[in-house]
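Ticket reopened. Same input as before:
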Amino acid sequence: MLKFENVTYTYPGGETVLNGLSFEICAGECVGLIGANGVGKSTLMKAALGLVSARGTITVGENGNPSEAGNAVSKALVMNAENLPAIRRMLGYLLQDSDSQMFMPTVLEDMIFGPMNYGMPRAEAEKKADEVLERLGLQYLKTRQNHRMSGGEKRMAAIAVLLAMEPSMLLMDEPSASLDPKNRRKLIRLLKELPGTKLISSHDLDMVLETCERVLILKDGQIVADGPAGEILRNQTLLEENDLELPFCLQIQG
Amino acid sequence: MNKLEKARLEVREMDDLAAGNSPVHGMTPLSKLFVTVLYIVTVVSFHKYDITGLFAAVLIPFIGYQIASVPVRTCFRKLRHVLPLVAFVGLLNPLFDKSIQMVIGNVRVSGGVLSMLTLMMKGVFCLMASFLLAATTSIEEICAGLRKLHVPKILTSLLLLTFRYVGLLLSEAADMTEAYSLRAPGQKGVRVEAWGSFLGQLLLRSMDRAEELYNSMLLRGYNGEFYYAKKREYGRYSWPAALITAACTVLMRFVNVPAWISHVIGGF
Amino acid sequence: MHMADALLTPAVAGVMYAASAGAAGTSIVKLKKEAKDLTAPASVKLPTMAIMSAMVFAGQMINYTIPGTGSSGHLCGGMLLSAILGPWAGFLSMIVILAIQCLFFADGGLMALGANIWNMAFYGCFVGYFLIWRPIMNSRLFGAGRGASRGKILLAAILGCMLTLQLGAFSVVLETSLSGITELPFSAFLALMQPIHLAIGLIEGVVTAAVLVFVHEMRPELLSGVQEEAAKSRGSVKTTLGILAVTALVIGGGCSLLASSNPDGLEWSLFGNAEEGWSDNMGLDEEDYGVSSSVADAAASVQDKTAFLPDYAFAGDSENPAGTSVSGIVGCAIVAAAAGLIAALTGFLKKKKA
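Engineering reply: fixed in the latest deploy. New output:
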């Protein structure tokens, strides 16, 4: 669960990127965040992670027992200095640049880095890593050196690194950028299969249409549209007002 | 292909070699480090005229290369870095030391020529030894070994973190030089108008990347500690093998092996 | 300027390792202290150091063509790193760069690493920073008040690179001579090395200055040692005098060496008089050669004092270490043949296995 209430962020230079922004993402939802270049999509994610200190209230909640009703939240924390470590523990952030995300020598070492920093014993962390790799079918990457992977492998491995931390919610910045069609397809399949709350920021509206049930459009630091993906992504006027286009697959049909 | 791209491939080649699986790869990093350092110290301590005794010392790294299946020629390509200064220093020796130290038939060899030759041989042999260490030990293993020697963590972590990004920065810089040369045909390097901005741009981008990287570390709970995985199982023979090699090295230092061989075989 | 193992004795190499380790230890302590301070700049953080090391490593391979000549210049890593990261982090980053060059490119030897760190990182990071970079950045003498300016960066980078390269080259000569590797007299070696590095230093300085000026114009906050010092007020007369003294030292020292390496004289002394015996013509205090006699005397006394070093040979060396010549050479041939046999044999065995 992620809730923004009247969040504002101004760069040190004086430029306002988030301007009294409010929205809520419930547990289990998969939400797409779209908007033209420079509208503040990345800044929004950084605010959620406490990497930039925004004004306003940001609340992050942990997933409840999955057997209970869909949007059960076991605990909700308000962003402040004290809660910051716990909040970061709940969120998995996929960076646009996988090379910055993975800084250890090998994939396995990157996967155990987070869990061990949060106090998990080595054996358990390695077992966890094995499980995740198994689930994603990436066993062959386990001992691979990070500087010896293709772009597609890097992105998948970066997702594995996040999942090894068992986050309550995934924040993904341009997950499909610079992937070839086959790897993009693989990613979309993975995103559909992955349970849990997700916020995906992307220019790849076809992918958003396939993977997200709800879409937010960001413009001038505000949420200008919020609704079911199928409706918003079909609304040509709305998209064009916000410097976006219909998803490619809908253009062909239309 | 430009220099940066070549350097990237060189790193990659070393990586591939170090990933091999031979008895030499299976020795603990510290035992290999010990032998290598001992070998280098012994080789450089040969007397400057002792050319025959020194020559035998080539056998040790040479056999090492065979056991490790590392082609010797990969190492000789690296000589271009080491040889210039050594050659510069050594080439002048024959001009200064004219004492006759060796007579072969009726050719008299001066001390300067001998010391020049031994100096170059020492340069090559030491390179062979260091290269064998680097080619059979990954940088992670070397750092693990250094940690055991109580080298501060900040240095070993920095070394690994730097190594992780060396290839990336090399190819980024290679792309930039390529893009530059495509727009500036016939130029051998970056022209004076672009001196500052060329590397400056890369520097600023790198600073941004560093910040992103640091964020990524913070998000995963970084508090000054890195955790490394065990890379391979090391053979129990590591230290015995290292000590035997060390003993042979020291023996060669005191017994002129070529002279001994010819004495035994030919009775010269 | 990377030294190979062969140019050093273990004793000299060990001393240089110890010296570099001492400097590294101090840097780590200082850095840890800085890191505890929460307001510390990002430059003391490990990732910044790592990325900058990797960048300088790559950046040093870029060729900068020098106008009017066919040759190219490179970047001066030590000065650039300490100007961005500060001296402590800069020094550690340089160590890492040199270690990677040593391990992966065989650039400089494993045993010589300590000496290489000293020659190339210590002077660039500490002498360059504390004696040149910081005083100039915070001096009022060069206009623009305290803080950086284009002119000051240019001055500091060029002066710094020239000075640190001179010191580095001097150390190479000193270490090699103390190791008794070369027969070349100390002063002649010096006269060969210093002027070359004066020219290299000038070019490296200009390249480094260009990069730093660019950074200053784009992101001035990235330069180290500029703002923090600006707050403190310091006796600028002292720093000015210091800068002037260093400048005089570099220019004076450089020029006298440049003058002394009068190519005709050098060529004459090296190649012209082979048959007349060297001790006479390569005489250190010969008027013709032009090295000032005080330097020559000092060099000679250093040589006297270190004369035992070339004979560091272990006990057991015979009077004629070249061995009984003929038998030695026959033996070498046998060793070579054995090596060939081993290679052939392992090749054969591997083929069989496969």
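The two ends of chain C are 45 Å apart (CA to CA). Chain C touches chain A through one residue (CB under 8 Å). Please confirm and we'll close it.
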